[in-house]
Amino acid sequence: MADDEDNGSSVLDADTFVETEAPAVIIARIEGKSRQVERLLRIPQYTEALETALMDAPTQTRDEQCKAANWILVHRVLMATKDVDGLLLGLNPELHDVLMKYLYRGLATGDRITCDLCLRLHEKLFDMAGIGCIMRAISDTQNLV
């Protein structure tokens, strides 16, 4: 008979978590992405800017400064775009779950303008990616943005 006891192996234990990179290295990478995003926003290539901001999100660190720096970058792109439909239609489907996580982070800020934008994007992203995108975003407790 199979052992029904949950040994907690599916949950990331605080004692066993290992940072894969130093926070300074992650911040330097985000600063490089920031320069690239700003260049893309000036062109304007909003979808490419969003993909750049979402790529290589700092999920394997617990350093809040790293996570906040990347959120600021994603937020910058979201606030710069006016064509929400066009932004999402061109977005790489592999990044839908990451964007959904950032939308929930934006909703957690409590800022009215940010929340309004995140809710609009949430609705559009749900229509495109389905309920699975939401479930993966809220159930992934190890790769938080």
From TrEMBL:
<protein>
    <recommendedName>
        <fullName>Actin-related protein 2/3 complex subunit 5</fullName>
    </recommendedName>
</protein>
<dbReference type="GO" id="GO:0030833">
    <property type="term" value="P:regulation of actin filament polymerization"/>
</dbReference>
<dbReference type="Pfam" id="PF04699">
    <property type="entry name" value="P16-Arc"/>
</dbReference>
<comment type="function">
    <text>Functions as component of the Arp2/3 complex which is involved in regulation of actin polymerization and together with an activating nucleation-promoting factor (NPF) mediates the formation of branched actin networks. Arp2/3 complex plays a critical role in the control of cell morphogenesis via the modulation of cell polarity development.</text>
</comment>
<keyword id="KW-0966">Cell projection</keyword>
<keyword id="KW-0963">Cytoplasm</keyword>
<dbReference type="InterPro" id="IPR036743">
    <property type="entry name" value="ARPC5_sf"/>
</dbReference>
<comment type="similarity">
    <text>Belongs to the ARPC5 family.</text>
</comment>
<dbReference type="GO" id="GO:0034314">
    <property type="term" value="P:Arp2/3 complex-mediated actin nucleation"/>
</dbReference>
<dbReference type="GO" id="GO:0005885">
    <property type="term" value="C:Arp2/3 protein complex"/>
</dbReference>
<keyword id="KW-0206">Cytoskeleton</keyword>
<dbReference type="InterPro" id="IPR006789">
    <property type="entry name" value="ARPC5"/>
</dbReference>
<dbReference type="GO" id="GO:0042995">
    <property type="term" value="C:cell projection"/>
</dbReference>
<comment type="function">
    <text>Functions as a component of the Arp2/3 complex which is involved in regulation of actin polymerization and together with an activating nucleation-promoting factor (NPF) mediates the formation of branched actin networks. Arp2/3 complex plays a critical role in the control of cell morphogenesis via the modulation of cell polarity development.</text>
</comment>
<comment type="subunit">
    <text>Component of the Arp2/3 complex composed of ARP2, ARP3, ARPC1/p41-ARC, ARPC2/p34-ARC, ARPC3/p21-ARC, ARPC4/p20-ARC and ARPC5/p16-ARC.</text>
</comment>
